[in-house]
Amino acid sequence: MTASKRNRALTPTELDRFGAELDALRARTVAQIGRVDADYIRRVVAVVRYTGLLGRVLMMVGAIGGAFVAWLFWPGVILGTALLALSKILENMEVGHNVMHGQYDWMRDPHLDGKTYEWDIVATGDNWRKTHNYMHHTWTNVRGMDDDIGYGLLRLFPEQRWRPFYLLQPFIAVVFALLFEWGVAIQELRVGRWFTGKTKHRAMWRKFVPVGRKMGKQMLKDYVLFPALAGPFFLPVLLGNVVANVIRNLWTYTVIFCGHFTADAEVFPKESVRNESRGHWYLRQLRGSANLSGGKWMDLMTGNLSHQIEHHFYPDLPARRYAAMAVEVREICGRYGQHYDTGSLPRQFGQVMWRIVRHAWPSRPRARRPLVRAEAVEAQG
Predict the structure, then answer these.
(1) In the chain, where are the structural domains located?
(2) Which one of 115, 170, 233, 290 has the largest count of C-beta atoms within 10 Å of its C-beta?
């Protein structure tokens, strides 16, 4: 049975109560936020800093020391690359993503200011705050309003119009995963509009300048300066940096796609958000999101996006709170007859891969139950 059949359409009164209960959970959690959350994010920042530093040192030791003591080469380079990848994953997901949502603005720490934080990938923080924080989180899974639906490259829902180009998407998806940070970097540029002449060259150049500057800075740091410190052993350190970035890209892609494109995830037409109530907004977020099971390590490594449902409900609350909130969120969803999509990483990613392959071919939209009971809407009219 599909989620759409398991989900019960709610009356406007039920939607109001549903939204009120989730708002109340938010209020109770906000009242608890304090020093423990500040200590947590500062510990993670320290882990990012020291694992990154140790990773780079080990790569240097392995590359340079390996010329004199052969057995040092591979252990040093491999362990150094793994630690640098870990540092980049934590910085990207638990620090950068969550800080830029404003989750720690209450601390008044300029290094953790959501409006100015700049993360360690080629995408600019300003563009991410627009495409992700505003467009995606406001219009989650609304066709024509949420650019994260396939990122302009992939057809993941039968409601998206099919074109022959999508036959290539199983291959495009692999390349996109490997270069995910670059895809995120150019998302706001809307390159497709430039190719079709809808965006003028001068306007595109103005938009590209800050993005190009950030790309250049990242490439200079990872692919020139740090490898250059190894002197004639430049290439092993360069390769380690490339691999660390690719590992981070693959992991980020996997987590994000598992949170949005599982078998039960739904998309919505533009008209569905007209005069949208708070309860209706929560319900749409729920129907377009999915969680990952796996415990505390999974939570840490995903920046707590293993609780994507809770993140879509409460994007500006410290993400470390999501696991505790999830217990009550799931109970509330159950009482209102709503499917709470969660599963292991292999299960959820398997569903994502099936979507990518299946919808590369022509497919028809499935019948969806409405979010609001039709008879209740008619009665109100």
Answers:
(1) 3-358
(2) 290
